[in-house]
Protein: Transcription factor CP2-like 1
Amino acid sequence: MLFCHSQPESYHQHSASYIREALAPFLKNEEARLMAENGAKRTPFQYILCAATSPAVKQQEETLTYLNQGQSYEIRMLNRKLVEYTDISSKCVKSIVRVVFHDRRLQYMEHQQLEGWRWNRPGDRILDIDIPLSVGILEPRSHPLHLNTIEFLWDPVKNASIFIQVNCISTEFTPRKHGGEKGVPFRIQVDTFTTNEHGEYMEHVHSSSCQVKVFKPKGADRKLKTDKEKIDKKAAQDREKYQPSHETTLLKECSPWPDALNLTTTTHSGCSTPSPVYHSSPVPCSFTDGNCSPNQQGELLMPGCSDHLLPSSSPQNTQQWLHRHRFSPFSRLFSSFSGADLLRMSREDLIQICGPADGIRLFNTMKGRCIQPRLTIYMCQQQAGNHPPIKPGGGDIYHALYLEELTLLDLSEKIAMLYSITPQQITHIYRQKPTGIHVLVSDEMVQNFREETSFIISTIRDESTDGYHVVLK
Structure:
């Protein structure tokens, strides 16, 4: 369904003068300013955020724009190549808009930061689309697991604009030790894709972004006013060191966001992932995508203790190991690390990079530390009368059984493994007391077994069920 208001007719692709006149009201001042800032370089696409830049930014620094929480702001989009020529083969292009951290340190901790925000604001999104105000937008989507990302299609031959709402504020990601700490800056980034030969939006054509700070309602207006008053009080010579404030903000060309391609792929292939740092018929997925089907995910998240990270592991194998052990949010950070590189890092290094929770978990997983069993018991299989037991040391042979769950089911599974049968073949487990009585073993009895208790175990064949009764002495 197309969400649009009244628009001008399609532009004639050979009439450059007509296009310039039609687009003049739309991007008159912005185009001149872009040419002044970028010189002769003309980027394929241009995006303008309709919010004023701060005048308290020095000439050589990146622009900074203040936004109000929950307020709708317009982002205008234009394929600038249409002014000169048209070489976009697909009718529509796909743009992914995301709110990310400007600070590199917070980018490394993005997964934990966004999870914390989700926990404190259940049901809310960091970024929303104001669909009624948007113009020329096709198939707007907001993934339920990617709270800071929206995507949509638009026709580059026509005017298009999307209105976005940022619902988090910059101070939600600061410690606030004194209540007045400055909020962290964000980035609004737009990544645009065209279709490949298979009709999938995977051909990256352009990315641009700008720096913003988000305040509580009306806070951005007050901050902008304060900055203007601060600059006006400076001497004329000092004012020249600062950029003039503009009514709109140009998004400058940048590198594509690393997760943009993965997000585009998963949207069309149907794979889902529980990750917030970013992602409907199931298809096979590889570890390098960081995504998998629900069935595959259950298999990947239950690795055995023998799945150790080795010093000889290549960077590709290390990436697979990180995905298998649920460290996908850090796969981009450790993309060039081999197994030896990771194993050289100390516990403190990993905590500093990944945060306390994931840093400790990554350190323990790398060192191959298995979960300690809750109970260890020893079993000696009773031999038949005509089969003397094997006695390499002159005594009976016992097997250690490690119970992770103090339940009858867990005990049955371990005994079944000892006899190479299925747990379903064990119908009952009894404990024989010194008086000769047989007591039916229950969960409560297993919970009261003492650590390293030893038993002599025997089995009785149950002909009626083709199963076994197990007796512990």
